Every structure is written in structure tokens, then in C-alpha cells.
Amino acid sequence: MSALGKLTFTESKLMLRDPSTAIMTLVFPLFLMTIFGIIPGFRKPYDGFGGAAVIDTFIPGVTVLVVLSVLGLSVMPVYLATYRERGILRRLATTPVSPLLLLVAQILVNALLAVASVALLIVFARIAFGVRPPGEAVGFALAFLLSATTVLALGLVIGSLAASSKAATAIGLAVMFPLLFLAGVWTPVELLPEPLSTIGEVTPMGAALQAVRDSWGGTFPEPLHLVLLAVYTAVFSGIAAKTFRWE
Amino acid sequence: MSIIEVEHLEKRYGDHVALRDVSFTVEQGEIFGILGRNGAGKTTTVECVEGLRRPDSGRISVLGKDPHRDASELRTKVGVQLQESALPDNMKVWEALDLYSSFHANPADWRGLLEEWGLAEKRNARFGKLSGGQKQRLFIALALVGNPSIAVLDELTTGLDPQARRETWGLVQRIRDKGVTVLLVTHFMDEAERLCDRIAVFDRGAIAAIDTPAGLISRAGGGQRVSFVPSAPVDDAELAALPGVTSVERDGTEVSVRGTGDLLQVLTTALARKDVVPTGLRADRAGLEDAFLALTGEQAATTEHEEARR
Asked: What pTM value is reported for the model?
């Protein structure tokens, strides 16, 4: 097996061996879906959403975003900061492979976990609450991919800047909550007053949420949102590449 | 040709001079020691050799290559055990070896390394559950998994209990017996004296001396130390006047005489002539520690040494 394959495989095993992360990532979306699914009002058509029920696209979209945020802004940065703190990255730097490979492996592992989690969510929402799967499959795949790269790249920035695993945890949370708020996770952007709603829609998570919701509802995501996500990915990756320290 | 050549290495961190004109060469097949107190520049030096750090000036050649320019090539030929590095706690012993062997184009058979370094029983144990000695053996195995020509071992036995340290010494000799040149960084005198063919003594960022352990000891005056508690008062000046005696020290009632030649014979004869019986008589050959203290400034070292004894 190639070094990257083996690293990704080993990192996956390590993640599953510390099962709280995997369980949290796979079960929490179902929990969230259930909580909102059993609120009667959320299952009725809602004028604010153009006649769609709250659990049709809003709750699944929020759930996808929360999964990505937890993995990208908390799990991965803390892993990387811990690896740096304990000299694991440094040890890798003395081998013929670049420690960069470990970053790639970490991104892959977290992305795989996110995909598994979202697949489970789609099936669960369908069976338990009759929520239709994403209507625009290609658009959804694209929206999900770009949302994942945006959040993971932002996670790399946090992992680069944090001096310790404790700092990574704190920074991750400090970045996550405002971004989720602006994205309209607590109050949908449709209901936020101007200019907050506009600002919200162009933030990394806001654009992600809109793109995921649109495609789940059956329309192709707005190009603006997809372009924004691609730009955020490029910018965050660039910052991470500039600031990442191996020790 | 020397396998490692280091010439006029300089490195400073801000105002702090970490390395001052450090030069040495390491020959094929030897265990070369880098000995010094903490902060003497040992790790900085080997990190420059490993290509992890870039010196401000000076030239390094490893196997005829430049550690920076030819980094990727050298990484297959230099196996490294780093000070203060670890593996993820949940990684199993065999997984670490399997993973690290996948980084190399022509790896050693890691199953064989498991056997060889006494880790076969711990194959499925997680890194976090290993004892200090087992962790070090795993690090050695990881350093050797790429079939390197050079192994750099930084503070290999720090934190190990005496039993595990002695076992690890045997392992280092085995690495050399396999034809691998060893660069051993240590601050333990007994370890350096026992293992190294040649030693570079580091003192505050510079090399104080390079020689074989025996060479260093004789350079620092060599000789012996005889300690005893005299049964009746003796005059220090009389002892100091005896042939071969270089110094006389007192620690409470105990007298320590340093010197060369037949020191013990000379002393006991002189004392017998005065009807003084030396009780608790003890003779030590001067060791690397004495040489090290002489080479790196006895003043500071002696106080440190005495504090340690209290």
C-alpha cells in the first residue's frame, strides 16, 4: 500500500479506536434530526420557507453543517495540534515522506467520516420522518464537497495557529459559534433582519448552508454560493500553507 | 572518506549563540558520542545534521550529500530517534512499524525487527501502554526500519531506569555490529564512556575536545584518586609533596588525594612511616566524568556536583 493509503488507513483506525469522536459524529445528527422531527410545527409547510416544512431542508442542512463544523473546526485542529505538541509531526519530518501527507490523511479521514455521517442522516431522515433525500444530487454533492473543503481548510488554519491542543479547542469553538450564528443555524437567514441576512449569506457557513439547502430542496445551488465556497477554500488553504508549523 | 563531516557550524537564536565553530567528522562504523550538559548545543547540532534545522553558517556533508539540498535522499539513509517525540497513544506497535516501513522504498522486514528488538510479545500493545524501555526499543526499531547507513540517537536513555539503560546500551552496540554508524547524543558520562568509540565534548555551544574516552581521560591528567580517613592528623602539605601527587582535598575528615603513577603505593608507605592508618581506603581511577569536568570548566561543575551529592 502507498504511504498515503497506509497513513489514511492508520489514522482511520486511530479515530475509530477513540470512539467518542466517531459515535458523536454519526449519532449526533440523528439525535438532532429526531429532536426537531418530533416538534409538530416543524413538519408542517411553513410560509417563511416558501411552503417547505422546517425539517425538509433547513434541519438537514443545519445538521450537515454542524457535522462539518465539529469535524473541521474541533476534531481535526485538535488532532493536528496534539500531533505537533507531541513531536509526531517532527518525527515524520525525518522520514522520506513529507509530514504534509499526514495533513492530507487527516483531511481524508474527516471527510470520509462526514460522508458516512451525511449518508446515515439522509437514510434516517427518510425512514423516520419521510424527509425526501437531496433532490438535486449533483448540486448537493458539489455543495457538500465545497462546504467540506471550506470548513476543513479553516480547520487547518486553526490547527496552524494554535500553539497547543488546548488552544486549538478554544479557538475552534470561538470560530465555530459566530460562524454558525451568522449562517442562520439558530435563526434562518430568511428571518434575520437586513443587513445581517446578507452578511450571513456570504459568510463561509452561510454560503454552505444555503447551497446545501437549495440542492436538498431540488434546485441547483446559486453560483454565487459555490464560487464563494471555492474562494474561501483557496484563501484558507493558502493561509494554512503559509502559517503551518511542524513544531 | 568520513561518513559525516561538519565544518565551522554556527547557529544563533536571537542573542543566544547556540553553536560556535563546531567541526567534527564521523567515520564509517563507529559510535560517535556527542556529550554535554543540557543546553550545550548537542541537539541543535544533530538536528542540523538531520536537516531539520538550518545552520547560520558552516558546511555539513552526510554521506557526501547536503542535508538540505538532498534532504529526501538522505532521509532514506539516516534513521533518527528524536528527543521528546512520540507516537499517538492508541497506535499499536506493529502498526507503527508497518506504517513507517511504508515510508521507505527498501524497508527492512518489520516483523524481523519486532523479534530482534524484543517487541514480538508487545506486537499488539498500544504505544501509550508501553514501558519507557519498550518505547525506546520501538523508536530504535523505527529508526532502523528504512535500512539506514547512519542512526542518530538523541538522549536515548533519558528517563529510563538503570536496568533498562544497561539493556539499551547493549542494543546500541548491536546497531553498530550491523554495520550502521551511530551518532549518539547523551549527557550521561557512563553511557558515553562505555559505548562511544570517540566523543565530542560540547561546552556552551562549542566543542571542548574530541577524542576516544581513554584519550579524553588521559588528556585531563588521567591518574587516580585515593580517599581515606586518617587515624591521626596528617599535614596536607606533606601529602602534596609526595611524588606523583597533584592535589589534596578534604571533605570533613576524609582526605582525597589525586595523582599519577603508583599513587596508592606511595601514599600507604608514607602514611605507614608516620604510623597513620588510612581507614575506609578507596582508590578510583579517574573516569570520563573527571575528564569532562576538567574540560568544561571545573568551577561551575564542581558546585553542581556537590549540590547533587547533598
From this structure: 0.80
